[in-house]
Q: What sequence folds into this?
């Protein structure tokens, strides 16, 4: 290939990257201008909070939580997708559904996988944080090769990276005491191990030229239908909080993780030049909804919409036909995941600091993050 052809190809790819960064369509472009959004694309990493199972190979065969549908059938109702819509970005295609074209990758990628964990899993049934990071690295390396390092670096710096992990580490490893984890580590020690891994992940993303990062805390797991059911057993260690009906012991574990993670994010923002990392406290947002369900328009803050038995948690969501007729009246969709209505409230607060749920994202809102 001649030098002229190589230059022309590089120029064409640069135009493609520019087009993608502006939203690809006139509708997205208009929304971006209206919100003063300066973000090229969105890259998502996480668990069922970012993926309904479509990005998890053989998910129906290897799922562990007996809930085949961690959302109501579409990623579009999940929190990161609602935020992407507010930014005017195109739909973020799951990694394993990409056609691997440079144009598709430049539109954003969802690397997340249902049941993904921070720590490396003992089986091949789902992906870990490090496996998803490797996929991000390979994607950005491809950008270096196709766009050139300067353009690739600019694109990464102007893109948003979204991280949402942790709940499955507590469900699978700690609370179920896999491999005797609870005997080896205190709740504080386990939280520190997880937070250290998340900090390493954000440092790795920074080294890949990522500058805008949103990192989600864990929901109040002690209020989820499945864990509420398990702790109803009189022999269970946890105690039920009569105020909300949630399991205090589990929520205290999650709070330790969230508080440590936010503290480390504050330090990273001080330490890493140009880094803008936002922590979103989903725990406090969902806890407020559970404390005042009727105020937010919910009738049932304890039972899963899709499931059977006590709390809708004795049998998980094995078919969408099992779902209740009034999804909007429930806080929880299945064993561990909130309904689209809860995600919508969280997205509004994360985006602009909606007063009803207060500012769950700190030190700035997601809107402020992508407007700089």
A:
């Amino acid at each position: 290939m001649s030098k002229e052809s190589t230059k022309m190809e590089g120029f064409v790819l640069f135009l493609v990257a520019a087009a993608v960064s502006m939203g690809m369509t006139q509708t997205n472009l208009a929304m971006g201008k209206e919100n003063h959004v300066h973000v090229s694309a969105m890259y998502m990493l996480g668990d069922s909070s970012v993926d309904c199972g479509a990005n998890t190979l053989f998910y129906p065969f290897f799922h562990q939580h007996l809930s085949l549908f961690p959302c109501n059938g579409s990623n579009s109702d999940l929190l990161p997708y609602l935020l992407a819509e507010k930014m005017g970005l195109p739909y973020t295609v799951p990694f394993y559904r990409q056609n691997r074209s440079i144009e598709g990758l430049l539109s954003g990628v969802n690397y997340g996988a249902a049941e993904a964990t921070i720590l490396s899993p003992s089986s091949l049934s789902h992906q870990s944080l490090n496996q998803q990071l490797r996929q991000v690295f390979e994607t950005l390396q491809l950008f270096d090769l196709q766009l050139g390092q300067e353009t690739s670096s600019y694109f990464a710096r102007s893109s948003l990276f979204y991280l949402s992990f942790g709940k499955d580490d507590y469900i699978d490893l700690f609370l179920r005491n896999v491999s005797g984890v609870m005997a080896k580590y205190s709740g504080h020690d386990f939280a520190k191990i997880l937070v250290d891994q998340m900090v390493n992940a954000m440092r790795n993303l920074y080294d890949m030229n990522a500058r805008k990062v949103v990192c989600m805390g864990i929901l109040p797991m002690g209020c989820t239908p499945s864990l509420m059911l398990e702790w109803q057993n009189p022999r269970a260690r946890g105690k039920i909080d009569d105020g909300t009906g949630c399991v205090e012991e589990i929520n205290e574990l999650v709070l330790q993780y969230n508080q440590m993670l936010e503290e480390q994010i504050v330090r990273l923002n001080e330490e890493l030049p140009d880094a803008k990392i936002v922590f979103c406290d989903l725990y406090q947002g969902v806890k407020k909804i559970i404390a005042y369900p009727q105020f937010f328009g919910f009738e049932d803050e304890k039972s899963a919409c899709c499931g059977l038995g006590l709390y809708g948690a004795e049998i998980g969501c094995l078919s969408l036909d099992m779902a209740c007729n009034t999804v909007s009246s429930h806080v929880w969709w299945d064993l561990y995941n909130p309904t689209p209505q809860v995600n919508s409230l969280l997205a509004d607060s994360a985006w602009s600091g909606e007063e009803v749920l207060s500012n769950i994202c700190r030190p700035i809102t997601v809107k402020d993050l992508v407007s700089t």
User: Anything to note?
Assistant: DSSP finds 15 helices and nine strands in the chain. The CA atoms of residues 13 and 59 lie 35 Å apart. The longest strand covers residues 42-46.
